[in-house]
């Protein structure tokens, strides 16, 4: 069934298509106020479909609000540079929900299976590069995995 055809309940069906895998290196969180912090993004790499690849530029940040239940609201903003020199701006808004036990393991730098917690975000990509202009017109949904010094983001295009 095509994505623009309604299902039996009248809802429109959507599909997800792999788009990018991003590995972002991070520094320690900086506490700003109670329940509010940011995580400096220090670099990283990415690969995408059709041979797209490059680096995550240092200088981005992930602003976070810690909810009373321990969930983390995420607002990340950073830049990618392709191997051919083109730039992509990334805006990511999401949530990471973990149990207190899993949060302690993540904070200690332990390897934690991403199926043990919920880490999802909405991704928008923008660029001035004509060859990458199609990124301006798509929406992405991402799953995340938090390691001690690296966040792995798997972005899927909503089609």
Describe this structure as you would to a colleague.
By secondary structure, the protein is mainly beta. It has a single domain, classed as Porin, CATH 2.40.160. Helices cover 5% and strands 54% of the residues. It has one helix and ten strands, in the order βββββββαβββ. It has one helix at residues 100-107, and strands at 16-26, 30-33, 36-48, 53-56, 60-66, 72-82, 87-97, 118-126, 140-146, 150-158. Strands 1, 2, 3, 4, 5, 6, 7, 8, 9 and 10 form a ten-stranded antiparallel sheet that branches. The relative contact order is 0.20.
Which characteristics define this entry?
159 residues; mainly beta; Porin; ten-stranded antiparallel β-sheet; 1 helix; 10 strands
Q: Which residues form runs of ≥5 with pLDDT under 50?
A: none
User: What structural class do helix, strand and pairing data support?
Assistant: mainly beta
Total strands: 10
Radius of gyration: 17 Å
Question: How many separate domains?
Answer: 1
Order of helices and strands: EEEEEEEHEEE
Task: Estimate the global geometry from the Cα principal axes.
Answer: globular
How does the major sheet shape up? 10 strands, antiparallel
| The CATH C-level class name | Mainly Beta
Task: Tell me the CATH topology.
Answer: Porin
The share of residues in extended strands comes to over 45%
Write a brief structural summary:
By secondary structure, this protein is mainly β. It has one helix spanning about 100-105, and strands spanning about 15-25, 30-35, 35-50, 55, 60-65, 70-80, 85-95, 120-125, 140-145, 150-159.
